[in-house]
Amino acid sequence: MTFAEKIKKLRAEKNLKQSDIAKLAGVTTRTVAGWESQGRFPRKRELYQTLADIFGCDVTYLMGSEESFLTSANEEYGSRGAKQAQLILDQAYAMFAGGELSEADKVAFMDQIQEMYLDSKKKAKKFTRKDYLEKKTEE
User: Fold this and answer.
1) How far apart are CA 63 and CA 44, in angstroms?
2) Which residues, at least 6 apart from 44, have a Cβ–Cβ distance to it below 8 Å?
3) CA distance 3 to 9
4) pLDDT tens-digit profile of 71-94?
């Protein structure tokens, strides 16, 4: 079940409108609509916890491995890092189009891809010029 499906289901169970969720979560109604219809998800982990509190569910229910990975990439490396991470996921999913791997093997593969991406970003940061890093933190 996708994040969008989970949000829609939980919202319906609580008999809430998108605007109600938006007010309770401190976001816009457009943001909630984006989660439900455009495949978007919260960019910060704290918002997942807020939603879990609103719906009375566990945060791990809302945050699947893909959302967790993309959120980590966004928090650590910004929107550019999240876009790169999404591209990696899209390309990896395309490899599965033939259906040759079992579901457990697909999950293991995706976990490894995500771990490799985050590790490579950390290593690349070590070789980034300090004046560039200082400039990025000032912005």
Assistant:
1) 11
2) 71, 74, 75
3) 10
4) 778 788 888 888 888 888 777 777
For 78, the token pair is 């910004």
User: Reduced to 3 states, what is the DSSP secondary structure of residue 28?
Assistant: coil
Identify the DSSP state of 14: T
SS3 102: coil
pTM above 0.70, yes or no: no
Q: Is the pLDDT of residue 40 over 70?
A: yes
8 A C-beta contact, residue 2 and residue 39: yes
> Rounded to the nearest 10 degrees, what angle do helices 29-37 and 18-25 cross at?
120
The alpha helices in the chain, defined as continuous H runs, are 3-13, 18-25, 29-37, 45-55, 59-62, 65-95, 103-126, 130-138
Nearest-10 crossing angle of helices 3-13, 18-25: 100
Nearest by Cα to 44 from 9, 78, 85: 78
Q: How many CB atoms lie within 10 A of CB 71?
A: 20
**4 DSSP assignment:** H
